[in-house]
């Protein structure tokens, strides 16, 4: 157990420093508004609270254990004392390091991107903190169990003891809840008796009462912020902000990327990797309606010479990108990247004339590859549709 | 003073206790079956009554109204008599209440499985059952107030305050939410439409949680916990303040179920802020429970009853902490429509309600049979099975909810959605499997309890009428200074009226403006009533419980607009009686399904979803391909809609079926083009017509106007 405790202490001390470093490097940008971060922080705080609570219970158990020893015997057994005291000492040591965890959390919030809007460092840091917290919880639980078992055993054996003063943490808990000592209970008895149930009239726990006041004030501030001063965005404003940000990001990315393909610049891709990529997309998304081999099921046959919306690579690209919603072909531009669309369009061109079994009869107009690049029969119409 | 001798009625308590156990098992089995269908859709057997959409309402109604309902009645009938020092007002009414309630449960289960549903969550029962519920609830009220009035105890204990508030608020919620216009004996339409229906429904739904699953159980806690621990209640003044604060604040919080929807922003904000303020009053109950155990924690280690109570109260504390958390818009943006919500409610349901019920039954049965518990060890095992079951149930679902929400929201750098909807579903299927294992453990625990209690009863002798003595109440003579709150504790009717006023405020302030102020639901000129065929299709959609898995509400998020289309506007739903926004996206949103796929896609997909979407967990709806559309009901449906102000031309009911057939024929022809031969009057045609209409109206209007709304 000692080993585990030592390891834990090391972890608790090192973690915040390592994390703070990780957080420090990241650019200070996106913020507490990222719901993912907020959730992670909340989980951390809840775990922290749980740790605090458990630590308190453990201290309580410790004090109970010593009380028992005090009552039952005179002899002192120094080895157990040392052990128990070290546990308690550890708990006190642990408390400040939790506080550091919290600080580091705040630092880490100031980062950006990739794991649900977090940098990899921050993400691993935050999950790391959570993991450490969970570990602490387990260690505390384990200790509590050991302690209880020991306390029980010692009480039974009526073994040796040392003098012991109540822990300050206990009085903190009492103070926080403004507990009356159990012996003075009769003073706050209301005298009510319902079927043997008595009622005390303890004071409201101060943290509860002030917490309630604070929640009411917070509610007022919230309403003020969103509906009077309008300094917080409405749902729709939030949406517009998100869309603008996305637009900027996307443009910045596409500017430096080979992905910048559209229906005017697309060329038939012939590289094996491209065709393979296209085939994969096709199997996932298109085969349901057009058949595994493009023979046509609900949608038309893609292997013959007849096309409803033009058979050139540009037409096919456009059909996939914008769809023909009225005829049941949906738009894929939000699901597939431009390169993916180019790949799948190229794949479709590559299966031309394969004559798969169960092919659907021809639909649409005859299209010959030679004239494809010159006349783009339906392109004008399609542009019109996309504008609508 | 003359002491009177009288007898407590234990028999009615026994009946309700047995009903609690039986319906508990039934409800949990239904839940387990529904959970298994989520990863093994084949277990629905392509048979309408066993599909998820119908089993899920059976599960929710059974555990809420049958299991927890009977648990409440058990506890109330036991504690009320003792707290009032009086036998129940009328044994006849007790019996009527008992059999009436069990009858309703049976009818509910049968009608729900047959597809008779109003399509409003937790209020699915059709109008004749709604009326029966109202009557039985009134019988319960008369019996309860009769007992209170002839009490031999001057003041009402805090448990009874909670019972009274429960009774009056549930009556209010049930009646307001169930205003519907009957079309036939088992079909009705909600009087409210769209946004307004959503507001009323979630005012009801949220407060069903508050006043059916929380306040009465708090009342039970205030009786059974101090009894079992033999400790005084911690704080009288905490009871007072948390009681009034709780019932006042709870009622406002309904709109937090509708964050980011087409509900007006101000109503959403009210839902959020009242949820925040609700946290500490909710915790007041937890503190009063846990602190009552001060000085009795050594007993908790020994006594399974107290173990159950402690975990129940802790779960209550966790669930009521999580509630306000989920009401924050930024968290709700992630959690809503995912399994996170399911995990959250099961902390409350399995932990708080279930464990309170188990603890209470373990305490009651030995006492009513004048013996001790058959096996403490078995009860402790039940406790551990249940606790571990809850953890194994909830943790995977939290994970699933969070993971799925992140996948939904992930874009590639090129600006495309990274994951297809189906990918996000298949990703969490392992979590669904784990969850059902947790549920199974919990169920096994409950079965252990039934065995243990039967054995306990067998070794004891049932005390049907328990003798007691008490002096009758005389006119109060002493005028000693009392706590200010004592006066209302002497006046049950005043307490009733005050509770009603306190709960009515929140609902009225939110609902009246939403109904009366026109800006809250801006009109969209291009939104037209459903055609008769679409209306029939919509009723089939409601009947099959599609809303249990599919939402019809696109929130204004980048990912949802990219995935489903333009975000939903309040004006689009004005003809939706009832609204079908849903609360869970096990399948994709359907608000703009219209025109996304060809008719034949839907035909094949309904026949077997896995043909069109391999890996889909949707059940097959093959009976829609054969069932004939119930055209005889069309005129009545049109007339009902007209009564509610849907602008069909006068006399349209006579012409409706002709229009229906014309539209059906056009769909038949479009299917034929894709080599599918079908008669035009089968239900699938109506469903296709409805699905192809969804969300299309708004596309017919000019772009600038769309942006404005």
TrEMBL record, chain A:
Residue span of region Disordered: 351-388
Which portions of this protein are annotated as coiled-coil regions?
Answer: none
Q: Where are the transmembrane segments?
A: 36-59, 80-99, 123-144, 207-224
Please tell me whether the keyword Iron is annotated for this protein: yes
Q: Which residues form the signal peptide?
A: 1-20
What does the UniProt keyword field contain? Heme, Iron, Membrane, Metal-binding, Signal, Transmembrane, Transmembrane helix
| Residues covered by the Cytochrome c domain | 273-352
InterPro entries membership? CcoP_N, CcoP_N_sf, Cyt_c-like_dom, Cyt_c-like_dom_sf, Cytochrome_c_Oxidase_Subunit
Where in the sequence does UniProt note compositional bias of the Polar residues kind? Answer: 352-361, 375-388
Q: Which SUPFAM superfamilies match?
A: Cytochrome c
> What's the protein name?
C-type cytochrome
From TrEMBL, chain B:
Query: What is the membrane topology noted in the UniProt record heading this document?
Result: Multi-pass membrane protein
Q: Where do the Cytochrome oxidase subunit I profile domain residues begin and end?
A: 16-456
Compartment list: Cell membrane
Residue intervals of the Cytochrome c domain: 532-695
- Enzyme class label: translocase
Named in its record, the pathway it takes part in is: Energy metabolism; oxidative phosphorylation
Q: Which residues cross the membrane?
A: 12-40, 60-78, 98-119, 131-149, 156-176, 202-224, 236-253, 273-293, 305-321, 341-363, 383-401, 432-454, 495-516
Q: Which family does it belong to?
A: Belongs to the heme-copper respiratory oxidase family.
Query: What is the protein name for this chain?
Result: cytochrome-c oxidase
Keyword annotations from UniProtKB, A to Z: Cell membrane, Copper, Electron transport, Heme, Iron, Membrane, Metal-binding, Respiratory chain, Translocase, Transmembrane, Transmembrane helix, Transport
This protein's cofactor list reads:
Cu(2+); heme b
Record-listed E.C. numbers: 7.1.1.9
Give the gene that encodes this protein: ccoN
Q: Name one Pfam family in it.
A: COX1
| Record's catalysed reaction(s) | 4 Fe(II)-[cytochrome c] + O2 + 8 H(+)(in) = 4 Fe(III)-[cytochrome c] + 2 H2O + 4 H(+)(out)
